[in-house]
Amino acid sequence: MEEERDYDFPCSSLAVDSVVRLGAGGAIWGLCLGSYDSRKNGLTGVPRASYVVKSVGRIGLQCGLFAGLYTGTRCGVQRYRRKKDMLNASIAGAVAGAAIAIKTRSLTQVVGMAAFLSAVTSAADVMQTN
């Protein structure tokens, strides 16, 4: 029944839903991490608040964009191939991993992150279906 439900919603709706969900989780993580790091760096007052707000925005945005890219790619590949299997998660993980690592401008890191996230998302997909 869950397989049929995935085809009822457009990929854009699924991607936006995952952006909002994981972006909110990333923002909470950024709030915790920003507060800790600002205290560790000895910041107080306005500089501390500014540091925390920047951490919340940066980490929330990164998590949300990763989730949207992964979900949109997975849904698009699944609809293109008309199959629901592990390969969809592998391709989406590779694309999202490469997108995360592209800012390093190192081909080795881009390929490594793409392979790593492809393996992790494939394993998660296998565990979810079993």
UniProtKB/TrEMBL annotation:
It is a multi-pass membrane protein. It is found in: Membrane. GO terms for cellular component: TIM22 mitochondrial import inner membrane insertion complex. Pfam families: Tim17. The keyword 4Fe-4S does not apply. One of its GO terms (molecular function) is protein transmembrane transporter activity. The keyword Transmembrane applies. This is Uncharacterized protein.
